[in-house]
User: Which sequence fits this backbone?
């Protein structure tokens, strides 16, 4: 049975090669060399006919375009979004939809968050941008004490469910302390919020539209290293993906590898290395939504494989991996054949020149995987 | 050399003088060349609009006597300048008075009930009733209100029932907030009053965001945002003022400057000319009013509403008043201010007494009416109080609802767990005080 599954997944991966190759050929080799990960593009869901080749920032721009076009109340604002944004995510939108719908705010994150909450309370579909997730902390009070608790504390009289906060997150190669952080765990401790991290353009478009249309305040964290490097064929239509639903990207038998955002691609490569070097069959899961997270998909997988490796860029102590690990040991205790292992950033600030030693790269993940398989 | 000259052009006035001193002993020709190239009649920095000066002069904060306090009535309820009399009808004036006094009666009874341990917490509105009623009366009832916590009079003006106030303080099954928040954290969709939360100033940028959505909806409404002078020190106040001006929002900022933030006097809160003086710095039209003069508050709010709705720009009103009561039931204000000081304000400048004097002067009111209304108020509040106290608390399942629009799986699991636990250990929980599970 194990062999059959492994063969299946190998065949599946062979299929991927044809998708990967053109990307590599179009000058992407450089990114592969300098980056800690290799991008694994998603395939277009079969139900979609028309597609266009987009990178992550373009697919987000496409989602925002659709959100504004389909909802007259929708507005987008933040620092420097008017001219297109420092990552080009809002390019062309002000020209197309007007300055009253896509506009710059003063440079003040707590103001952006508070203004955004009020805009949503006033009935507008509200999409606010924080320029870097590292700078979301001045807005922490508004997000945690206000946005998250609005519906609950008012007995559902008022809510800011129409609010979505987008923010670039994660390592980018040279971001240092304040252009690299992954703050998802801070928000995962806050009932009332939804926290979502996409792994690439196809998912980002569908998930962002889901967040925008979901009737709860959502934080949408965009791995900025993927803005230009992640390219795939993205459906042109208006589509959404369910929140709180994890994706099994690769079915496997021997161990479950769980990550989100850029780290998913690291784990995909680790799974390949494990198959080639160790003949280990890995099940790779993208958690997608950090809060509320898909416990069932993760626990079902671990019950099957008996082993779990969680990897995230954020520091290990009280990172979201700790939450997953605690839940899995409680739910899957009799199925576990090794301790749950976490491969994460270290408990240090995110360093500049030491980034290659800081990140939970494929070699650290592979090493942990070996340990788990030999346990 | 060129670099040095350019730097001189970018220096503020004070430093420019220093560079001129240097120029006396060094070459100056480059500066002249620069001025003829760029034209020096007006500075052309993108960040400001003003003229040059060759005088080294710091702008001093005490250049003027402070923004004056606008008033309509004197302390005896006499209108000082007939031209500024709002000429409100007898009905409206009496309604103002009745809502202020009803609030005052409710405050006294609920304050006492907290002292007796019947509710957990309370905050009175003593001395600030005029700011609430005067401003609320000048608004359109559809205008959205964002408050801090000491604005119950606004709800009172809009007809929020006594039962609703007291149900909230009891957190009983009739509380629209489902008993989740501390007392005095009121909210009502019907009365366009956004639910109060404890974190100070958070409502301020939110009010601006709602005002922006009103502007886009072109609904002819504005937003009013109340806050205390202590709150104005929060970063969110700065954010709100600045966003409202740059994004041109129909919002009225209404500051209740009552002299204290809990124990902190204004001398430890700010060193400028109060809160009003900050308005112009943000590009906000600003006025300071006598908060104990309900007509002054009314006039200022009415004019502010006209400006903000018609011109889509924010207005700041600073109402000067005095917090006569303790900060809350958890505070004994005699620990930081004298009883005499409080008595002075209570006896000589009270907004209720001042309006009553006006009404007596107009023959709208007399001793008999006063006595009858006082009894009536007390009866209304006591009856409402008794009803609220008899009611059960909501089902404890409400602890799990409204966290999200739908209850996610993990919360359903936690609810099922708690249900089983309470069933097994029910003797240890106050289940009989709560409505039986739905």
Assistant:
């Amino acid at each position: 049975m194990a062999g059959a599954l492994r063969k299946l997944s190998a065949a599946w991966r062979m299929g991927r090669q044809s998708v990967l190759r053109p990307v590599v050929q179009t000058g992407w080799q450089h990114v592969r060399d300098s980056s800690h990960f290799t991008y694994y593009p998603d395939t277009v869901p079969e139900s979609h006919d028309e597609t266009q080749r987009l990178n992550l920032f373009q697919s987000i721009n496409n989602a925002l375009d659709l959100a504004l076009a389909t909802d007259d109340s929708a507005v987008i604002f933040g620092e420097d979004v008017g001219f297109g944004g420092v990552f080009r995510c809002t390019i062309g939108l002000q020209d197309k939809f007007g300055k009253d719908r896509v506009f710059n705010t003063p440079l003040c994150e707590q103001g952006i968050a508070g203004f955004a909450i009020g805009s949503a309370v006033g009935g507008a579909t509200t999409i606010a941008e924080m320029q870097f997730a590292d700078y979301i902390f001045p807005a922490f009070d508004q997000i945690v004490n206000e946005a998250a608790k609005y519906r609950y504390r008012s007995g559902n009289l008022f809510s800011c469910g129409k609010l979505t906060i987008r923010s670039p997150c994660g390592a980018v190669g040279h971001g240092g302390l304040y252009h690299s952080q992954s703050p998802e765990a801070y928000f995962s401790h806050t009932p009332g919020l939804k926290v979502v991290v996409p792994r690439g353009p196809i998912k980002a478009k569908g998930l962002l539209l889901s967040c925008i249309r979901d009737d709860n305040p959502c934080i949408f964290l965009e791995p900025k290293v993927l803005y230009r490097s992640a390219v795939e064929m993205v459906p042109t239509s208006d589509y959404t993906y369910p929140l709180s639903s994890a994706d099994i990207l690769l079915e496997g038998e021997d161990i479950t590898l769980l990550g989100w955002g850029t780290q998913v691609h690291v784990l995909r490569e680790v799974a390949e290395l494990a198959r080639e070097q160790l003949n280990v069959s890995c099940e790779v899961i993208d958690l997608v939504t950090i809060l509320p997270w898909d416990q069932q998909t993760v626990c079902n997988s671990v019950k099957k494989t008996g082993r779990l490796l969680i990897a995230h860029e954020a520091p290990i102590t009280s990172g979201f991996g700790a939450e997953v690990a605690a839940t899995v040991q409680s739910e899957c205790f009799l199925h576990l054949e090794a301790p749950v292992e976490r491969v994460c950033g270290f408990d240090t600030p995110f360093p500049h020149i030491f980034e290659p030693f800081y990140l939970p790269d494929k070699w650290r993940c592979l090493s942990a995987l070996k340990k788990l398989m030999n346990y | 050399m060129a670099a040095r000259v350019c730097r001189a052009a970018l220096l503020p006035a004070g430093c420019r003088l220093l560079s001129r001193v240097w120029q006396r002993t060094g070459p100056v020709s480059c500066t002249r060349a620069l001025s003829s190239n760029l034209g020096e009649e007006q500075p052309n920095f993108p960040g400001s609009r003003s003229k040059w000066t060759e005088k080294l002069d710091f702008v001093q904060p005490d250049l003027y006597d402070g923004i004056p306090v606008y008033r309509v009535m004197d302390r005896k309820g006499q209108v000082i300048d007939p031209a500024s009399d709002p000429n409100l009808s007898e009905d409206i004036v009496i309604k103002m008075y009745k809502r202020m006094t009803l609030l005052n009666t409710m405050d006294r009874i609920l304050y006492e009930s907290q002292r007796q341990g019947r509710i957990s917490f309370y905050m009175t509105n003593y001395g600030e009733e005029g700011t609430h009623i005067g401003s609320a009366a000048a608004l359109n009832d559809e205008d959205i209100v964002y408050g801090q916590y000491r604005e119950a009079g606004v709800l009172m003006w809009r007809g929020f029932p006594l039962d609703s106030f007291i149900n909230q303080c009891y957190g009983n099954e009739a509380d629209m907030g489902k008993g989740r928040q501390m007392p005095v954290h009121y909210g009502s969709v019907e009365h366009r009053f956004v639910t109060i939360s404890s974190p100070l100033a958070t409502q301020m940028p939110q009010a601006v965001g709602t005002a922006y959505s009103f502007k886009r909806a072109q609904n002819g409404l504005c937003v009013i945002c109340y806050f205390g002078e202590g709150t104005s020190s929060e970063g969110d106040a700065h954010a709100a003022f600045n966003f409202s001006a740059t994004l041109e929002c129909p919002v009225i900022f209404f500051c209740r400057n009552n002299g204290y933030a809990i124990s902190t006097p204004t001398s430890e809160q700010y060193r400028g000319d109060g809160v009003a003086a900050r308005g112009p710095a943000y590009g906000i039209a600003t006025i300071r009013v006598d908060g104990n003069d309900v007509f002054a508050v009314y006039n200022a709010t009415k004019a502010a509403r006209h400006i903000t709705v018609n011109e889509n720009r924010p207005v700041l009103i600073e109402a000067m008043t005095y917090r006569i009561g303790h900060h809350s039931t958890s505070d004994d204000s005699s620990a930081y201010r004298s009883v005499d000081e409080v008595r002075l304000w209570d006896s000589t400048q009270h907004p209720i007494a001042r309006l009553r004097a006006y009404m007596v002067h107009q023959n709208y009111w007399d001793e008999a009416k006063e006595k009858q209304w006082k009894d009536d108020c007390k009866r209304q509040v006591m009856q409402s109080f008794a009803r609220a106290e008899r009611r059960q608390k909501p089902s404890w399942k409400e602890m799990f609802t409204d966290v999200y629009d739908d209850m996610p799986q993990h919360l359903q699991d936690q609810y099922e767990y708690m249900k089983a636990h309470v069933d097994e250990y029910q003797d240890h929980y106050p289940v009989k005080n709560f409505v039986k599970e739905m």
About this structure: Chain B has 15 helices and seven strands. The longest strand of chain B covers residues 251-257.
